[in-house]
Design goal:
The complex is a heterodimer of chains A (about 230) and B (about 400). Chain A is α/β, with parallel strands linked by helices. Chain A has 7 helices and 10 strands. In chain A, the strands form 2 sheets. A 6-stranded mixed sheet of chain A has the order 6-7-8-3-9-10. Chain A has a 4-stranded antiparallel sheet with strand order 2-1-4-5, covered by helices on one side. In chain A, strand 9 and strand 10 form a beta hairpin. In chain A, helix 3 crosses helix 4. By secondary structure, chain B is α+β, with helices and mostly antiparallel strands. The chains are: A alpha/beta (about 230), B alpha+beta (about 400). The complex binds adenosine-5'-triphosphate and magnesium ion (MG).
């Protein structure tokens, strides 16, 4: 069953005057349920731009984007916010946790925006933190956690709403190899439980966790390969 | 999402943000503090002047209306006034029976007669015939003894109450109470002595008067006299309504047709009313100006700091949007923050204003009116919402990708 269907997605940044940056030059991708996709490519090839569009953080200049068969290309800000809240879990390279809130509150936040009552919220957030192995760090603020632990909080936050898809843009980019590996093991477990994951990375050994690798170059899809038997 | 949890979350964020920038928040609220102090003190001062006014109004008889043939400020022909029918005791009785907005009604009639005790004489005492109600219609009180009673008044007993100057002149070394004096050749027993009034309103004071029951007056000095009816309004505030009521009653009593003009005047000491009105107006004008200016400057300060706050927290806004905060949520978050800052300023203002109002109380009989507290809180919230709106709106419109990328 397809979750994401991109048709001829283009993203052009108008830099004023005659200058423009074509970050995406017509991308076609279909991603189905429970896939584990890695997006690779050199710096500046449009990986993050593509992820942002898939994550409904950004809208394409042209092209059609269907999310769960619903056309999101024409949705307004608040409708997109709702999709991000319910259907998408983000994991960023720089963690992007709220510095002044503890782990528990950070994980609760999407549930607050979903309008879930406090008791349920607490319970779900604790569950998610438990799942990423941080049950004993719930009251810690981000600056009291290691990089790996922060990224785990971010994964718990991404998981807590039980989204259709998890998007991770270089989630190991700020972590050392060992911590990165642990994180990838965690993501593999998450995938195992039936989640769909799209991952951006520079590292081949990270990409090896994925079942499908899409390579971008200059805003084009250079290759899109299924990796067998892993 | 559910509105309550949205507000709770907003409050949490606001408190965190304010706690993180304590000094800045306090400084920012300074304008609001000044504004609230000024509005509170203004209201307190006006309250004080009003109370003082009510007090003095009673003391000087500004809340007393005088129904008479002649107007005090005369335009028009003296003869037309002269030819009006006399004001009679019957009218006073009608007012007594019918009026609802008055505290006391007393007819009074005055003539100048010598007062005498032994070989001491006051040649031109104002001999005033009135009823026992007189003491309730004038703001004066007795120093010694008592005013004559209703029985003495109705029975036309030969008793009197004297003003302070009369008592001083006739009884320099003795207690006047119980002594018989002669006024206009008739004997009266002194029942009481008025407190000295002195001051501005000479002829209105009791100082040079001798009061006797109006019945005694009429039988000894003639009953076909034009009288004055003194009416004390129950409240200074609706004095105009009282005038209207009295007018209606007197017209009816005189059986005037609608087409006929009033053949009487309702007089009042305007001077005091006008002076106090002017004082209140000046306080209000100055107060509003200072308040307005302080709140305006304060509001701009809040707006400025909120813009700073939004810019500083662009990344946070991006994160919140990425995980599902709607525009409204972000808008509300920042509005709550600016309102809390202003509310805090307002409360601070009240805390500062309260001891000041106690100091003011040394000069004027006043207290910080309770509704002012409510008004101050509402004003602070309003300033918070108004000055926070633009920054909050800008925050709510931020594009999530740009906001996330912000360093
Ligand atoms: N807001 C923007 N304004 C102008 N140009 C932009 C903007 N965002 C991205 N670009 C350009 O679009 C292109 C693709 O950027 P993108 O961030 O998607 O690259 P990337 O593949 O994620 O690179 P990296 O691996 O370094 O993260 C780049 O050339 C970049 O300069
Ligand atoms: Mg990137």
């Amino acid at each position: 069953m397809e979750i994401i269907n991109l048709k001829q997605i283009k993203k052009i940044y108008d830099m004023g005057g005659a200058e423009e940056v074509q970050a995406l030059r017509g991308v076609d991708v279909i991603i189905g349920k429970n896939e584990y996709v890695a997006i690779m490519g050199p710096s500046g090839s449009g990986k993050s731009t593509l992820m942002n569009i898939i994550g409904c953080l950004d809208t394409p200049t042209s092209g059609l984007y269907e999310f769960n068969k619903i056309n999101v290309s024409e949705m307004n800000d608040d409708q997109l916010a709702k999709i991000r809240n319910k259907e998408i879990g983000f994991v960023f390279q720089t963690f992007n946790l709220l510095a002044r809130s503890n782990a528990l509150h950070n994980v609760e936040l999407p549930l607050i925006y979903a309008g879930i009552n406090k008791a349920t919220r607490r319970q779900l957030a604790k569950q998610a933190l438990d799942q990423v192995g941080l049950a004993d760090r719930m009251m810690h603020k981000p600056n009291e956690l290691s990089g790996g632990q922060r990224q785990r909080v971010a994964i718990a936050r991404a998981l807590v709403t039980n989204p259709s898809i998890i998007l991770a843009d270089e989630p190991t980019g700020n972590l050392d190899t060992k911590t990165g590996d642990e994180l990838m093991t965690l993501l593999a477990e998450v995938h195992q439980q039936g989640n769909t994951i799209i991952l951006v990375t520079h590292e081949e050994y990270i990409a090896e966790h994925a079942k499908r690798i899409i390579r971008l170059r200059d805003g084009h899809i250079e290759s899109d390969t299924i990796v067998e038997n892993r | 999402m559910n509105f309550i949890s949205e507000i709770t979350e907003g409050l949490g964020i606001a408190f965190n943000a304010i706690r993180a920038n304590k000094m800045r928040s306090v400084l920012t609220t300074l304008g609001i503090v000044i504004g609230i102090v000024s509005v509170t003190l203004m209201a307190t001062a006006i309250e004080g002047v009003d109370r003082k006014f009510e007090e003095s109004a009673s003391a000087f008889g500004a809340d007393v209306l005088y129904i008479q043939k002649f107007p005090w400020v005369g335009h028009g022909d003296w003869w037309t006034y002269r030819n009006r029918k006399d004001i009679t005791v019957d009218i006073a009785d009608d007012i007594e029976r019918q009026a609802t907005l008055v505290e006391a009604v007393a007819p009074s009639v005055v003539t100048v007669r010598p007062a005498q005790f032994g070989d001491r004489v006051v040649t031109n005492a104002f001999l005033t015939g009135t009823t026992n109600q007189y003491v309730n219609t004038s703001g004066t009180s007795l120093k010694d003894g008592r005013f004559f009673s209703q029985e003495e008044s109705n029975g036309g007993r030969p008793v009197c109450v004297v003003g302070a100057n009369i008592a001083e002149n006739l009884f320099p070394n003795e207690d006047p109470i119980g002594k018989m004096i002669k006024v206009g050749g008739k004997p009266y027993r002194v029942q009481g002595v008025f407190e000295k009034q002195g001051g501005l309103f000479g002829i209105f004071t009791s100082d040079n008067r001798v009061f006797i029951p109006i019945k005694s007056f009429m039988s000894s000095f003639g009953s076909r006299r034009d009288i004055t009816i003194q009416v004390k309004a129950s409240s200074m505030a609706d004095i105009e309504d009282v005038k209207e009521e009295l007018r209606g009653i007197v017209r009816k009593s005189r059986m005037l047709k609608p087409s006929q003009a009033d053949d009487f005047n309702i007089n009042q000491q305007e001077l005091l009313t006008e002076t106090f009105g002017a004082i209140t107006a000046v306080i209000a004008a100055v107060g509003f100006f200072i308040t307005g200016l302080a709140l305006f400057v304060g509001g701009i300060g809040i707006m400025n700091i909120m813009f700073v706050s939004v810019t500083e927290r662009t990344k946070e806004i991006g994160i919140r949007k990425a995980i599902g905060a709607k525009r409204r949520t972000i808008l509300l978050q920042f509005l709550i923050e600016s309102s809390i800052i202003c509310l805090f300023g307002g409360l601070l203002g009240l805390i500062v204003a309260y001891p000041l109002s106690l100091i003011a109380n040394q000069i004027l009989p006043t207290a910080m009116p309770l509704e002012v507290v409510a008004i101050a809180i509402i004003i602070s919230l309003l300033v918070g919402v108004i000055s926070g709106f633009l920054p909050a709106y800008r925050a709510s419109r931020l594009n999530p990708v740009d906001a996330l990328r912000y360093e």
